[in-house]
Amino acid sequence: MADDSPQNERISEAEQAVMEALWARSPLTANEVADAVAPARGWTLATVKTLLSRLVAKQAVETAPDGKRFLYSPRVARVDFATGESKRLVDRLFGGSAAGLFAHLAEAEALTDKDLNQIEALLKELRK
Questions:
Q1: Is the distance from CB of 101 to CB of 90 less than 8 angstroms?
Q2: Bridge partners of 28?
Q3: Rounded CA gap, 92 and 97, in Å?
Q4: How many domains would you assign to the chain?
Q5: What is the CATH number of the domain that holds 92?
Q6: Which of 28, 55, 83, 106 is deepest in the core (most CB within 10 A)?
């Protein structure tokens, strides 16, 4: 039996913009989602409705009738989405090695002193 949980369906960058609006505040109507994301991206209401339909089909978003319209809410928590995307990134680019990711960021000088301090604090906490 195939696992059809929302986390198994890849969410595109465009769909993520819609999800961000829903994670920030939900439930929302399609018009409210469009108001939140369309202006910055040059999208129409039809584009937003298409993205919402795709997210519903992927089971990442659920709908509830509200008169003649629908209200949209995320079925996937933002933290769960971030966890899945992070794992995919580490698996795809670093062979599953989180240490490889950190080494790459350090070599590319992409880590600030603040980042390093936060990572050190996290490692100390994890080792307790």
A1: yes
A2: 72
A3: 10
A4: 2
A5: 1.10.4040
A6: 55
C-beta separation of 28 from 36 below 8 A: yes
pLDDT digits (tens, 9 = 90+) for 11-47: 999 999 999 999 999 999 999 999 999 999 999 999 9
CA angle 71, 67, 78 (to 5 degrees): 5
Considering the domain boundaries, does residue 4 fall inside one? no
Can you spell out the DSSP letters for the chain? Answer: -----GGGSPPPHHHHHHHHHHHHS-SB-HHHHHHHHHHHHT--HHHHHHHHHHHHHTTSEEEEEETTEEEEEESS-HHHHHHHHHHHHHHHHHTT-HHHHHHHHHHTT---HHHHHHHHHHHHHHH-
